[in-house]
Design a protein that fits this description.
By secondary structure, this protein is α+β, with helices and mostly antiparallel strands. The chain has helices at residues 5-12, 18-26, 29-33, 209-234, and strands at residues 36-39, 48-51, 54-57, 61-65, 68-75, 81-88, 94-99, 102-105, 111-115, 119-124, 129-134, 140-148, 151-155, 160-163, 169-171, 175-177, 179-184, 189-194, 202-204. The radius of gyration is 19 Å and the shape is globular.
Length: 236
């Protein structure tokens, strides 16, 4: 049986009786309603996310399939990090989406959703984790098994692995600064490209993760500052 996060916790601690659980199984409120939703509390200012042994530093789209953004970062008016993502299964059914830290889950089964104030987990059948987002650490960490149009981007605890128009492309121990992973199914290409807004980006390879993120953030700040300076020179 699939329960919303609050009811899931209620059942786990024994506050929901077995009779109540059986009733809710017969009268599934969330399926009738179509979704469950919640807010993710992110107390991070840096535009950085950790994906296994890799990190991304950018204030825009990170992973795209045919111009559809699957993961992006932004900042709110108070300078706090916002994450947005779209989680599909291999049949292109939307399991969950996060829009600027507000998440909504779809009604596709079988799956189980659990959440706290600063974390979100979607587990599919056979205990396969489709998404695990943890904002309790800096940088925010993300593990996911992304699918879209037959393309699979596995964001595991150790690396990023792509299989689709090309096979077995992997990345580990890198920081992607203002760079995007882009899939073009019509053209049959998978590429790492600079964010079009900046026109360039960089890869940071450094053994210590904390220093790697710091170097990535410094590189991003230099990039954004130079863009502002160019605009001033051009009179924009």
């Amino acid at each position: 049986m699939v329960l919303c996060p609050n009811c899931h916790h209620m059942a786990t601690v024994g506050a929901m009786t077995e009779a109540e659980q059986r009733y809710y199984k017969m009268e599934p409120f969330n399926i009738k309603r179509g979704f469950v939703e919640g807010q993710l509390k992110v107390n991070q200012n840096a535009v950085a996310v950790s994906i296994g042994s890799n990190q991304f530093v950018n204030d825009g789209d990170l992973i795209l399939v045919d111009d559809e953004s699957l993961i992006s970062l932004s900042v709110d008016q108070n300078g706090r990090l916002e994450v947005s993502l779209r989680l599909y299964d291999r049949n292109d059914m939307l399991l969950a989406s996060v829009v600027q830290n507000e998440w909504v889950s779809g009604d596709q089964l079988p799956w189980d959703l659990q959440s706290g104030f600063q974390w979100l987990r979607v587990t599919q059948a056979a205990r396969n984790i489709a998404l695990e987002l943890d904002a309790r650490r800096m940088p925010l960490s993300l593990v996911a098994n992304l699918w879209r149009k037959g393309q699979n981007i596995a964001l595991s605890g150790t690396w990023i692995k792509f299989n689709g128009v090309v096979k077995n492309v992997g990345f580990a121990n890198l920081c992607f600064v203002a760079l995007q992973l882009v899939v073009d199914t019509k053209g049959g290409t998978f590429s790492v490209r600079p964010d079009p807004r900046y026109g360039k980006g960089s890869l940071v390879s450094w053994p210590d993760v904390t220093e790697r993120v710091s170097k990535g953030l410094n590189a991003f700040n230099e990039l954004t500052q130079s863009k502002v300076q160019r605009r001033k020179l051009l009179g924009d």
